[in-house]
């Protein structure tokens, strides 16, 4: 099948609508993952062995099951027990919860990378818990987190096509709809790949800038 520029241009607005949903789902998913990941990381540092082990089990369970299965469970199974979510909300929750398990390990690694002497020095100077975290721990813990978190953000963006399995009309969902209705697959699928590539390149440039900027603060 030959490439048809007129057809490609005619479907571009539809695909851009899907790209907007893809970006929205990614941003919201990152917010959910960042918040829940921090909660998981703090719970794993709890002095209670029960809390630590339970949280560890939950994190490993989430990491050990496929994202697609989790999306199906949230969107198709939870309604059977009375919890019904819109498709986009279910997708954001599923991706956020899935990647929160990975963000938690990034948080934990960054926090544990801070030398114990820094914690002891903060206590010796009578800093409050908030002052210790804001002025001592986080400035040293954040820079090592950035590369890993950047990779997970990009991975989440690239996995948004899975949301089409729960009827979210993101970029890939729109492309499949166009292809199924016109029986032309070259143009929509190719444009999807181009869109993902362009956004990924822009994201990598921005994340590298953040890494350099915050890296200076960590030195």
UniProtKB/TrEMBL annotation:
Chief subcellular location equals: membrane
Give this protein's Gene Ontology molecular function annotations. transmembrane transporter activity
Q: Name one Pfam family in it.
A: BPD_transp_1
Q: What is the top-level taxon of the source organism?
A: Bacteria
Q: How does it sit in the membrane?
A: Multi-pass membrane protein
This entry carries the following GO cellular component terms, namely: ATP-binding cassette (ABC) transporter complex
**Where in or outside the cell?**
Cell inner membrane; Cell membrane
Keyword terms: Amino-acid transport, Cell membrane, Membrane, Plasmid, Transmembrane, Transmembrane helix, Transport
GO biological process assignments: amino acid transport
- Record keyword Amino-acid biosynthesis present: no
**Listed InterPro entries:** AA_ABC_transptr_permease_3TM (IPR010065), ArtM/GltK/GlnP/TcyL/YhdX-like (IPR043429), Ectoine_EhuD (IPR014341), MetI-like (IPR000515), MetI-like_sf (IPR035906)
Please report the stretch or stretches of sequence annotated as the ABC transmembrane type-1 domain: 19-207
Membrane-spanning residues: 20-43, 55-75, 81-102, 189-210
**Which NCBIfam families does the protein's record reference?**
ectoine_ehuD (TIGR03003), HEQRo_perm_3TM (TIGR01726)
Q: Which family does it belong to?
A: Belongs to the binding-protein-dependent transport system permease family. HisMQ subfamily.
Stated name of the protein: Ectoine/hydroxyectoine ABC transporter permease subunit EhuD
């Amino acid at each position: 099948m030959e490439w048809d520029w007129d057809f490609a241009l005619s479907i571009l607005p539809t695909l851009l609508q899907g790209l907007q949903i893809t970006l929205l789902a990614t941003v919201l998913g990152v917010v959910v993952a960042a918040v829940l990941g921090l909660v998981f990381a703090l719970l794993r540092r709890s002095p209670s062995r029960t809390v630590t082990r339970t949280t560890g089990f939950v994190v490993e369970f989430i990491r050990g099951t496929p994202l697609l299965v989790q999306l199906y469970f949230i969107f198709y199974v939870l309604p059977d027990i009375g919890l019904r979510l819109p498709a986009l909300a279910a997708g954001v929750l599923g991706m956020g919860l899935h990647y929160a398990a990975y963000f938690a390990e990034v948080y934990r690694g960054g926090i544990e990378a801070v030398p114990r002497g820094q914690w002891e020095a903060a206590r010796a100077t009578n800093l409050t818990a908030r002052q210790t975290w804001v002025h001592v721990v986080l400035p040293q813990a954040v820079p090592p987190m950035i590369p890993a978190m950047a990779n997970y953000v990009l991975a989440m963006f690239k996995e948004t096509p899975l949301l089409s399995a729960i009827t979210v009309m993101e970029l890939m969902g729109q492309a499949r709809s166009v292809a199924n209705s016109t029986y032309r697959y070259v143009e929509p699928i190719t444009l999807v790949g181009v869109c993902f590539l362009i956004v990924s390149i822009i994201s990598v440039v921005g994340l590298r800038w953040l890494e350099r900027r915050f890296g200076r603060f960590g030195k």
